[in-house]
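Example 3.2
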Amino acid sequence: MERVLIVEDDDFTRVLLQRACTSFGHHCTAVASAVEARDAWRESTFDVAVFDLDLGPGPTGVDLARVLHEENPDVRMIILTHYTDIRLAGNLPEVPPDVVLATKQAVDSAESLDELIRGAQSSTKDYANEDLSDSQVELLRLIAAGCTNAEIARRLWLSQPGVDKAAARLAQHLGIESASAHNRRVLLVQEYFRRTGQGHVPQA
């Protein structure tokens, strides 16, 4: 049995995670915010902490993991996210060492959550899809955010023709074929949403 802290701001998801956790005999404390997580952390001892990446306004799951990891690096930490590549989430701080990044698509049952909690799958390599360079990730984010070539050029220190060439190379790398630059943008945006599992356009 593990002592588990779950931090999830969505009420329905938090209840599901808590039920799945307790169904395998773990002792589970579930809270809705980073503030509540800090209070629970001070009051109890945990073996595993499971954070959602997006905790609403305020600190993210990565921010919380960094703070709590400094206080007790022995606690195993898991961050759940829709992103197949966490870099697509934007300007997040560096994830602490040994923190597991798990896609919510991969944790699709009580059994898979139990395996994750027990440490059967304990490497970020199992979950991170880092087939893109940092510059390609940022280009994909900016295209999905609806930025013009001029804005992308300014942000990435490229010429506007250079943006077109970089987008073409990115599309080729992703196996995307299009007859025009406009269609290429549409297909790249679709690829962004496929990789993030999000229903909103990212903030530029």
